[in-house]
Amino acid sequence: MVNICLIQPPLYKTIKEFSPPLGLAYIAAYLKKFGYDSTIIDANVLKKDNATLIKEISGKFDVIGITMVTISVSVVLDLVYHLRQNDTKVKIIVGGIHPTVAYQSLLKMSANIDIIVVGEGEITFLELIKLYEKDNRIFNDKDKMSSIDGIAFRDDNYGNIICTKPRELIGDLDTIPFPAFDKLPMEKYIPPATRNIGIPKGKAGFIVTARGCLWKCTFCASPTLWHKFRFRSAENIIEEIKLLVQRYGIRQIDFQDDTLTVNPERIEKICDFLINNSVKIKWNGFSRVSDIKDIGLLEKMHRAGCYELQFGIESANQAILDLCNKMIRVEETEKIVSSCHKVGIKTLGYFIIGLPGETRESVHETIEFAKELDLDFAAFYILLPYPGTVIFNELVRNGKIKDGFIEEFSKDYSVFKNPVISACSLSIEELCKLRYKAIKEFYLSRKFIIRMFKGILKCPRDVFPFIQIFREFFYMIPKIISRQKT
Fold this sequence. Notes:
By secondary structure, the chain is α/β, with parallel strands linked by helices.
């Protein structure tokens, strides 16, 4: 039997949000369906650094799979280097959004990665394990490896990078087993501040109900990873909710789709189940301002436990929205936020500062728009051009991003840090000033403060997200003060 370990790398010093690595949990469940056991180590939530990880796993596994995002490039490369130093026989497979779009540079940088999974991972990983079980030297046979769809690897004889033909996507997501929650430290996961209503650690569940997105925003890499939009049936989602509630005592669910509400009929079926069976859970999800046309559906969602929806509002400037192919209208944002407010669903608006075409005036327009809306929370981020996005590719074509750029700045490639490049005419320093101005003006506005106190008086547990938000806010006060003059 092949000894398999799947690793979520440690980013706990940079990212404070601890949600489970559902991608790894899906792979583990898929392997189990075909008779292969595996171990998942979420080094992030367990706060295990690379040195601890290496001591723990070196020499104990035949195959190690590691998920990677852009900000974890340096961490993963360091991890695979030391793993290889300690164990020359272990086979190392890396997958995720960053390896999918940047497999060439990764394989050139590191001779310690054997295989990169490009795109969807379940079937590809299973095929690799089956071949390894038959012959543990298979990863060295480039001809046989070339027959496996959806992978990239080095041809060490010629120094070439080989990428096989794309893996055919799983058509029916209902055929994939539920994530292997039993292999995760479920007692340690907790939603971030803006989505937490006082649920303790271990009582929050996380569900993905679809893969991909119907839209093609120029700042998003989702189309590159998933290619087309597919969603699970309402019946399948309901079974997963029942599992989380009955086996793990889950009281709150974070739906982590790009767009949960794209199919209103599916949402209505889930709501009917929750209402008719008196399932007492609270839940939230990411929506789109143009998705929900009927306030009656919002009312049903609220009765079914929906307490918050998040919206990618991005900008108040219609020209900027059109330029980034957002495919929404400013007036749609005003309407849906107002409707949510009327039925009692909280709203979190996400805004991006620094999109192509951005000016100081357009940022001020967005700040005022955010303050005028009936939003309960707002998150302001400076655009980070991720590999695989249209904006990133444009910067490459224009010569603003050179080879090695991502590797050089990977440790700082996070929306939680200052940007490493500007994709508009404003400087990085100007963008930082404007972001701090937005945060200050929204969270110190009279409208927000009154809404906050009314909310806490109406529902005392609402104090929990506000405590966490203001902890973060006061941490930023010195930076806000130093950048007041905009």
